[in-house]
Amino acid sequence: MSKSSQKQFWNNAQYRALFFQILLVAMLVGFFWFIGRNTLANLENRGISTGFGFLSLKAGFGILQSLIPFDESYSFGRTFWVGLLNTLLVSGLGIIFATIIGFTAGVARLSNNWLISKLAGVYVEMFRNIPLLLQIFFWYFAVLRTLPAPKQSWVAGDVAFLNIRGLYLPQPLFGDNFCFVGWALALAIVVTLLIRRWAKKRQDDTGKQFKMFRVGFVLIVGLPLLVFFAIGAPLTWDIPKLQGFNFRGGMTIIPELTALLVALSVYTGTFIAEVVRSGILSVNSGQTEAASALGLHKAKVLKLIVIPQAMRVIIPQLTSQYLNLVKNSSLATAIGYPDLVAVFAGTTLNQTGQAIEIIAMTMSVYLVISLTISGIMNWYNKKIMLVER
Amino acid sequence: MKKITWALVATVVTLVISVGFAQASTKDEVQKRGTFQCGVSTGLPGFSIADEKGNWSGIDVDVCKAIAAATLGDATKIKYVPLNAKERFTALQSGEIDALVRGTTWTLTRDSSLGLNFTGVNYYDGQGFLISKKIGVKSALELDGAAVCIQSGTTSELNLADYFKANNMTYKAVVFDTHDATAKAFDNGRCDVLTSDQSQLYGLRTHLSKPEDAIVLPEVISKEPLGPLVRQGDDAWFNIVKWTLNAMIEAEELGVTQANVDEMKANSKNPGIRRLLGLEGIAGKGLGLNDDWAYQIIKQVGNYGEIFDRNVGAGSALKIDRGLNALWSKGGIMYAPPVR
Known about the structure:
The structure holds two protein chains of two kinds. By secondary structure, chain A is an alpha+beta fold. Chain A has twelve helices and eight strands. Among the domains of chain A are: 11-45; 76-130 and 264-384, MetI-like (MetI-like fold, Orthogonal Bundle), CATH 1.10.3720. In chain A, α11 runs antiparallel to α12. The mean pLDDT of chain A is 88. By secondary structure, chain B is of the alpha/beta class. Chain B folds into two domains: 2-124 and 225-330, D-Maltodextrin-Binding Protein, domain 2 (3-Layer(aba) Sandwich); 127-222, D-Maltodextrin-Binding Protein, domain 2 (3-Layer(aba) Sandwich), CATH 3.40.190. Chain B has 13 helices and 13 strands. In chain B, strands 1, 4, 5, 6, 7 and 13 form a six-stranded mixed sheet that branches. In chain B, β9 (146-151), α6 and β10 (171-176) form a beta-alpha-beta unit. In chain B, α3 (59-72) packs antiparallel against α12 (293-300). Chain B starts with a helix and ends in a 29-residue tail after the last helix. Classes of the chains: A alpha+beta, B alpha/beta. Chains A and B meet through α2, α11 and α12 of A and α1, α4, α5, α6 and β10 of B.
């Protein structure tokens, strides 16, 4: 290459790369601007309302379950939050239950006990291979319909009632000073964590073990209880009563939530069971044998040697399962559980007719939830990754 | 779920892609295509429901057939697109269907902010309550605290809230996305009452395991004028759909039926009938249709009284009274502007 051509800036690889990058970005921005402008123009031409002004209009319809105060006089914007919280509730509980079921079934499937491992195998193969929507229908329309009518409710101690309309429980009504109990609980947890740190350090230094579980239990349960009685037990219960058609007062766990939760947990649990099994099998058997040779008993081998190594394989796949569960929770609309899709992308969309805005908001919400979950899981994954030296 | 997603994707894609606003006229498109795409319900006895062979019937379906007869001269050239309450408007906005005839209540919001127009009313309805006889309730005013099954995306959800609020009562709404799921949940005892338009209640009742155990309460808590819709901005097509319905009502008033229309066409001296059948007056010119457009409707589908009788009235399983839907001259409010 001659010296003169090197001087020309358009022959400089770095400038060229930069030029094409800028060109690409400009084209993308132009493309989206074009789409956006076109959409707005078309909506306007067809006389379809646009904008987010509808969010402040009065909704005028009722929602079965709401974690925040809601009635017909609240706005469409409020229905968004009600739906979102209901989605988060069923997803959060679903993740917890699916994880418990999945880990239990995954470990059980590797058990040496023939019956236990076969039972776990049957569970996984059966529920993994039936479409989720059918399972939701099964729990809702087939299983829960066997519950009695309100007047023939199953009663537990005259305070809890179970019927086809839901599980009615007494609701705690907190008195004025109840916050002290909360503070006591927080304090107990902090102290327990400090003691645990000290105990671990002592064990590392001297090899002496400390009965951490007992101390922690006494602290976390005992201290708040002590405070609770010391300030005169400021807690009363609102007990549900059958009045007219239904029970009133107390808390209600609606059957739609139960059916959806059971279906989601049982379905996702099967996949988690397989993930856990593959994780455990990925740990070299030499590790287990070495641990046994050191004289560790079975539970310790699992807890100290196998699980920590298996987690590295489990976590990335577990993340996908959690994401699936959250997205699958939108099937709620089929059985009338008021989640985000049923309430906001359903009723609200239909009452306002503003499909583009509402669908965009709903999609962004799922995106944000999913990205948050994968963010947390990736952080955790990094933490437990093999530290290479 | 899948369907709504596609309908939404279709809307968004159309709205995004169609540069400028050069929309072909729906009438030309239908005639070029040779089939009329009609949006109907996913299955509501008396209004639009498909039998096991896939043949559609119902009062809404007959309106679809009448539009096809007027536009294409053949009432069988229809593609039915079953839609649930949530999908219906998007399907029409996106052009997936040419007209929506799906028991849709005419309201200000829908007429003014969806980019759609109502062309008339083919059934005057009102919202009511279906309840099990065993409960012993005689009036909707005794429903305080009841659990209510309801279909999502309907005006019923709003009327219900208004009614309970106005009467100082509380309720729990259990909302499903199809008629079927709503009826099933009511059947299972998930709710005390099912609410919907009264005409639908009679239809849904036939789906229950013991239809005779349920009664419809006397209260009608709302006005529900149900009618066909078309896209806004296509006045020629709007006129065709509007006058199709008017012609059927006019035919009933003039006593022209499917059975006697040929004879009337040949012999009638009544100027009103001769105008309706395209023998005198403006005939089909204003609408851009053949002169015998109304004759085809009556010959192939029938007049309004006939389709009412056959689908929801005395000649059907539902046995609903004409009531408000009788002609204006017979105590109802069905009234068509003169065909002249």
